[in-house]
Specification:
With 231 residues, the protein is α/β, with parallel strands linked by helices. It has helices at 3-11, 15-22, 27-39, 55-63, 77-86, 125-138, 156-194, 199-208, and strands spanning 45-49, 69-74, 92-96, 109-115, 139-150, 213-219, 224-230. The structure holds S-adenosylmethionine.
Length: 231
């Protein structure tokens, strides 16, 4: 299997461990903060796109009132299988599909969340904008899209430190943990972190995609950011 899907199939077995190490264990807290932002929007239909092994879907499930339905979507079957195995409750439904063509009717969801995956939807700025339009389509008017992703720290010194960290540490660390199969995957991930947008630029793309309002909060000096956009 080649391409992006092949990369995620390769890294699936050790994905969570590598994530934890690469983000110095901070990814869990960032996900929970994003999940709380999403849960505050309420409603009964919540969707986690590019769910991977389901960390975010489970964080949402823990916050969800009983009648809420949480759906996890990913295009990589091994990721969804791991997510299903981790979901003791069995009440997160999973869907195998592409983020760019969601198999749901218009306005089907109150909340849509993406955690640490928007970079993968960014083959170009136009492609990312088109995918955000697709997210907007499945949200009801007033529905909320929450995105947590690495970002570009605004202060030059922090940005330089962050880039050096990514350049120097991400690759060797990934090689160590994932072996040669995962190496190509994490080389790709490191490159995608470098070329992603500042929080301001991402907000602009969200507005261009048709969201009515968008706000963001930076995490760790801007190494990551949570964006909240309203349809
Ligand atoms: C970096 S992981 C993030 C997983 C999870 N959201 C988290 O917070 O750990 C990215 C996930 O996005 C999925 N993915 C990448 N591109 C996708 C696409 N176009 N459609 C659906 N899933 C995609 C991958 O299979 C992978 O599971």
């Amino acid at each position: 299997m080649g391409g992006l899907k092949g990369i995620f199939t390769d890294v699936a077995p050790r994905y969570e461990l590598v994530n934890r190490i690469l983000t110095l264990g901070l990814d869990g807290g960032w996900r929970r903060t994003a999940a709380r932002t999403a849960a505050a929007a309420g409603g009964r239909m919540w969707l986690d796109v590019c769910s991977g092994t389901g960390d975010m879907a489970r964080a949402l499930r823990r916050l969800a009132p009983p009648e809420t339905r949480v759906t996890a979507l990913d295009f990589c079957r091994p990721m969804l299988s791991r997510a299903a195995a981790r979901d003791g409750s069995g009440d997160i439904s999973s869907t195998l599909a592409e983020a760019q063509a969601l198999p749901f009717p218009d306005a089907a969801f109150d909340v849509l969340v993406v955690s640490f995956a928007t970079r993968n939807l960014n083959s170009s700025r136009a492609a990312l904008e088109a995918t955000f339009r697709e997210f907007r389509r499945v949200l009801r008017p007033g529905g909320v899209f929450v995105n947590v992703e690495t970002s570009q720290p605004p202060r030059r010194i922090i940005r330089a430190g962050f880039r050096a960290y990514v350049r120097l540490l991400v690759r060797p660390l990934s090689r160590l943990v994932s072996g040669s199969a995962g190496e190509a995957g994490y080389a790709y991930l490191a490159a995608s972190i470098r070329r992603f947008y500042s929080a301001e630029e991402l907000a602009e793309i969200l507005l261009k995609a048709g969201f009515a309002e968008t706000s963001f909060r930076r995490l760790l000096g801007g190494a990551a950011a949570i964006h909240r956009s309203v349809r």
